[in-house]
Amino acid sequence: MGQGIAMPTALAALGGSLLAWWAGGQGGTWLLPLVLMMAGLSVGVWRPRALVWFLLGGSVAFSIQQEWGHRLPVGLSGQDIAVHAKVTDVQQQSGVQRLRLSIERCTAPAHLPRCDQLNSVRVSAYDHEYVVGERWQMTLRLRPPYGFINPNTFDYEQWLWREGIHATGYIRPDPAPQRLTHASPRLRQLASDFLAQLPLEARTQRWLAALTLGDSEQLNQDDWALLNATGTTHLVVISGLHVGLVASFVLLLGRYAARVVSPTNWRLRTWPWWLAGAAAVGYAVLAGLAPPAMRAMIMTLLGLWVLSGRHAPGPWQAWWLALALVLMVDPLALWRPGLWLSFMAVGWLIIIWQGRSRPRGVKGWCWALLRSQLLLAPLMAAAVLFAFGRVAPTAPLINLVAVPWVSSVMVPTALLGWLLSPLPLVGLVPWWVFEQALAVFHQLLVVAVEAAPLWQPPAHLAYPLAGSLVLLSLCWGLPAVPRWLRVGAAVLLVTIPWWPREQAIPPGQLQVTVYDVGQGQLIELRSANFRLLYDTGPRFRSGFMPLQSLWPPGQDFDQVMVSHADTDHAGGVDALLADHQVAQWWAPAEESLSIPSQRCEQGQRWQRDGITYRILWPPSGENTLSSNDRSCVLAVYAGEHSLLITGDVGRQVERQLLSQLNGNVSVLVAGHHGSGTSSGVQFVRETQPHHVVFSAGRDNAFRHPADDVVRRFRQQHSCLWNTAQDGALKFTLIPQQPVTFQPLRALAGGHKRC
């Protein structure tokens, strides 16, 4: 297939994907058919020959449009629906199973929207043990795909979209789920069970499952943290490296066999190439044909075609054709960073090796590998920095050792162990070698992380750093680039960390971020030389703490004030203790927290950077208040502006606070997430807050904020914000200037303005 066909095919598929995304984002299923119909008529009249590309792009667009149609209707959020479903994936976590279910039949209450189109959901299960392949009848409580929106953090909602998950939730214990059919034996599951019975270390079993079966879910959190911090994640996800190694190994054996069978014309034999292609397909199928494996299979098959030289396309034609095929088979791949990282890496390798002869001998191949890694590393580091906002400083050096070690030692011994596994004891020998190689590899990663941990550069340096990495890669990879430009690109990269720091917050100004942590509260206050956290966010039943995802480890906090010991306010204390440094803790004396803390009492006051902090509650001495009513109440003043955070205190305590407040409140974080037990009528009327923030979870079971509370604030013409709808909220208190809010979630019609 020539480039004249491959490139338009890929561009048509890409255009269809983007069109469907735009149409779906506009919120109507009618918009895409209308646009396609009008465009089709225009193309058919003016460019009849281009109609085939239009039809191709249209088919991809309709495939993506179906994803929008499969999403759970908003009217079913938080409602119980009955389903028949098949378990397609199970992830074990502490005390909970994360299930991926394929919905076969769905029934909603008669007065609610239908759920016939619901296809794939991700739910938590706490009661039964589930196995992939089983079919169950169960009741689910779901909500549309949704994730927290916080600065510089993983976009969970985007991940749900690109994974084709149409709702999230949990399995209701009542009525109890009923198993309809047991799981039929699967080769992958049988192989996993076989590995679990071997006399190998648990770490060896996990990594064997990831490298050979594509079961990367068996890797634990420590494994992933180590891989991410060293930039070696690509080595354990079934990718082009692994599928290519399997195909290359089979091709090598096949061509050797062909030389023995037909020594005079063995080069003309095609069956070794077909055998290598079959091995690539079989390995990808064994790995579950997950998106990375499927993408690697397509690219490997086209790579074999190019190398065979039999009516084959050129490298760039194959590149475009592979992109087109991946998008046609899996249109959602467009939103997967792995797609662009893979194709960028392959495209760059084509550029740097185009026109060069193939390496020969061991020395030639070693030099080729070294050159490829050195030229590829800066570009990949820039791509990861753009995509994830972080960079592994040791990744270029580690990959120089890790790639050949994994590809030439670990993967071959792992696969050889499977080939010899039917032989008693003999099959364990390759896996014992794998275990020793894994120990060396693991120790290498540990040393690298200790020497240079994962780095998240400051926001003002991220783009200059990524741009300089791209420039360095281009200058050294492209031919005929002057030496002075290559040296200059290297010097520029080295000097970036010493660029002027981000402009400090001027004295007298206070930057505030109310984080989106669901049904909980976590607020960060920063001035020129002071950093305070009010509350630490929730800890969910699964053990996840949203605080863990907000910053890289090693943060320093001058003070952390825990309003009270409820899990939605103090849930992240353990994460702070484990990953960060806190100079001083504040908490009510009667609260049972696992930290030595300064007792917060009414009347305490201090100043930092021209900002005044006052604790208005609880009163000093012993008291019999409830846990909510003894919450630490903090008032902060920056010039004429004031910020009031009341924790979970109720209306009676609020009335006692009024005597300590002077004038209207600029920003109020509503008490108890907007519960009807707080924000009483007198308190709202006398404080008359200009802005009110509700820190609440989307579709929370408590229905916070309460309708009566919202009406009270609206009667005072307060501007209302809700983390459930707006994501994290950032604002700055600047004397003599109005308070302006920056919501991180873009709403239909633009941001609110008050």
Automatic annotation (TrEMBL):
Residues 519-672 form the Metallo-beta-lactamase domain. The chain crosses the membrane at residues 30-46, 235-258, 270-289, 333-353, 374-392, 398-420. It is a multi-pass membrane protein. The keyword Cell membrane applies. It is found in: Cell membrane. Signal peptide: none annotated. Keywords: Cell membrane, Membrane, Transmembrane, Transmembrane helix. InterPro entries: ComA-like_MBL, ComEC_N, Competence_ComEC/Rec2, Competence_DNA_uptake, DUF4131, Metallo-B-lactamas, RibonucZ/Hydroxyglut_hydro. The keyword Cell membrane applies. SUPFAM superfamilies: Metallo-hydrolase/oxidoreductase. Pfam families: Competence, DUF4131, Lactamase_B. SMART domains: Lactamase_B. This is DNA internalization-related competence protein ComEC/Rec2. It comes from Vreelandella lionensis.
